[in-house]
Specification:
This protein has 296 residues and is an alpha/beta fold. It has twelve helices and eleven strands. Helices cover 43% and strands 17% of the residues. Helix 3 crosses helix 4. The chain starts with a strand and ends with a helix.
Length: 296
């Protein structure tokens, strides 16, 4: 076996196989490569390739390491790791010193390695079971995505958007993303009452929040007061002297549509005005369905 050593080497940090015809195995070092092979000593080109594996070509700056942060903060490598992973057993003054060293060095924690330690990916998934064209033409969804992204940015989370229109795509997404531990939690928007997606995620233990009330009391949700809002709108028209009041609901397969219809009916019944089914038209929250409801 021939060993070629580049001057100025330090201790090895990892061993990585290189898929090349020479079948060489490179030992990655903190400053320079060593090659162990059954062929002649490595050439300068091989050394250049090994530098590429290390993440920096000759002349490029090597990213700061955890060890460098530890040296700047005058603490151990394990202490730096505990600070990055928000371990409680670190003194506040030590945390401050370590974070200052991280800022000074420009160190960036490796997301994958960090997730293995903390069991968290810092990724929030948002699932919108609507046609893609609907998501980008309905003014509700851009506002929803804008607010969700702002919240993720504030708390240093990434946002993963999933769109699908076919049941097969939905099941594939659940298997590939939601059940794989790839996300820490999921926001589900615009789900119909009988959609199997939410019950499936509950069975799998996926942490989720629904945009809109869900009939299952186990589901946490964020919603406006759809019953109260519809009731107030009808009461306003009644105060103006109107008696024949119609409504174009949202989809009645969604709780938002059901709740707004309930509020409409409650307001009429409270004033002794009978509910006329001929004045109720089901829509789907689009301008087109509103136009068709008025024409009908």
């Amino acid at each position: 076996t021939t060993v070629s050593i580049t001057p100025g080497l330090t201790k090895p940090t990892a061993v990585v196989p290189l898929d090349k015809p020479s079948e060489m195995w490179y030992i990655l070092l903190e400053s320079a490569p060593t090659a162990v092979s059954n062929s002649p000593p490595i050439s300068s080109q091989s050394g250049r390739f090994c530098s590429l594996v290390m993440g920096a070509l000759p002349g490029e700056t090597v990213p700061p390491t955890l060890e460098e942060v530890a040296r700047l903060a005058h603490v151990s490598r394990s202490t730096v790791s505990r600070v990055i992973n928000d371990h409680p057993n670190v003194r506040p003054e030590t945390k401050q010193r370590v974070w200052q060293a991280i800022r000074d060095s420009g160190y960036r924690p490796h997301a994958v390695a960090r997730s293995l330690v903390t069991n968290r990916t810092h990724i929030i998934g948002i699932v919108i079971p609507e046609a893609v064209t609907t998501v980008f033409t309905d003014p509700f969804f851009p506002l929803l995505l804008h607010g969700t992204a702002e919240g993720c940015n504030i708390h240093e989370y990434q946002l993963l958007l999933s769109l699908f229109t076919e049941p097969a795509q939905q099941e594939e997404m659940c298997q590939r993303v939601l059940r794989s531990g790839y996300v820490d939690g999921v926001i589900v928007a615009s789900a119909v009452v009988d959609d199997p997606l939410i019950p499936s995620m509950l069975r799998d233990g996926v942490q989720l929040v629904s945009i809109g009330r869900h009939p299952n009391p186990q589901v946490h949700y964020v919603d406006g007061d759809n019953v109260g809002g519809a009731r107030m709108a009808v009461e306003h028209l009644i105060r103006l002297g109107h008696r024949r009041i119609g409504t174009i609901t949202g989809r009645l397969g969604m709780t938002v549509g059901q709740d707004r219809l309930d509020g409409y009916c409650q307001a009429l019944q409270a004033r002794g005005i009978p509910v006329d089914d001929d004045l109720i038209s089901e829509g789907d929250f689009t301008e087109r369905s509103g136009l068709m409801g008025m024409q009908g």
